[in-house]
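> @MW can you paste both from yesterday?
MW: sure, first one:
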Amino acid sequence: MTTPQQVRQSSHSPMGAPSTSPRKPTTLNTLRGLHKAGEPITMITAHDFPSAHVADAAGMDMILVGDSLAMVALGMEDTSEVLLDEMILHCRSVARASKSSFTVGDLPMGSYEIAPEQALESAIRVIKEGRMRAVKLEGGREMASTIARITQAGIPVLAHIGLTPQRQNALGGFRVQGKTTAGALKVLDDALAVQEAGAFATVLEAVPPEVAALVTQKLRIPTIGIGAGSACSGQVLVQVDMTGNFPPGRFLPKFVKRYGDVWGESMRAIEAYKGEVKARSYPAREHTYPISAEELRSFQSSVDALHIQR
């Protein structure tokens, strides 16, 4: 016996039905397997249920709830403004949509730098309250003891070296790292340090591709590049950037490739809706709910009897 399809008479409904052919959940072993096989690891950011839903459905290996949401979701000036509580709220939203992708939550500035114990407390919250599977933090050798403390507690850590945006003021702005011999050696030293501390992978940001390639060759763990060339073990981009979900004229880093025009499509749809509302062509008959002629006549008679004055 077939069950009739439920008809919702409400504007509130789930984002969509589960996939008919769901992927197996991506785990650390899955990521290690991809790395061992030489298959690039795909990662993208998401900051809420819809952005995570589409990333998961598209088959991304990893989803990062990055602190870039400070700018792209909360309208802040930079990542230093976002708070741990705000990150956790976004992590929870992303986690509800991510059925297969391996999820990583960023530790925001101020939530891990004071001491390893502070970092562990923050990491536990991101895992326990935010429902993430791992955390990410910025910094190289100076953060090794912090990474070790978190991993010793059983929480996977994704490191982040090269350009570390939370430290832009100390770096003199958003500057490419590793452009000199000394700078490149520091990137390698940081990479080896976070590897030995127990990080399962590291983001390499804004590093010359030749340097990133050599660093990747010297590591046992994967490198996830962003502005670091194609020789990295994987790549990550901010979803809002790569989908083109921003107004014309917005600055984009050199490494961003725009794969879509979500802003343009949204503008066209919203402007069309506005036009149809102004012309009273929306809603059309097929967008409304029926009432029988008998009930309508009864309602009209009841209203007339009330003698309502406008």
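MW: second:
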Amino acid sequence: MASKPKLVLYLDIISPFAYLAYYVVRHSPVFAHCDVTYVPVFLGGIMKACGNTPPIYIKSLILPLPSVALTNSIYHRQRVLQSVQRALTAVDVMFPERLPEIVDLLYQASFADHMAVHEGECLTALLQKIFGAEKTEHILQRSKSDDVKKLLAKRTEEVVEKGSFGLPWYIGGSLG
């Protein structure tokens, strides 16, 4: 029997383009038969490593996309969103089967509901919806640990080595 097609999607909650890719992969029947792995990375680290300019800073590329989402997500929150990516990395380490569920919730909250997911109270409340208070506390503590910080940095470096210069970034096919 042939194995399922494999797809790895690298994501960062800050990126509206990664959100669109994530949404399609999660909801399109085209990907229903794929073995999909979601990998949190730090878009700021990717952009810096590549010397890439974020689209929000390129005046000729600003399209009539939801400017509130672009401005709110990229321009104002880039530094503090690293804590969100660390929390996602901690979830991936502690509860990998629940990662898509929390990514769904964070993208929905950030882009559809215009919530400040990067703020501690908001992030905590969203995590608690899925994990409850006790597990959320453990996730947030783990997200501040050196091992999670190093893992997020390692994954970010690895995706750059694989050719990424921004997000979304996919790797598909035979990954074995």
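> thanks! The chain has a mean pLDDT of 88.
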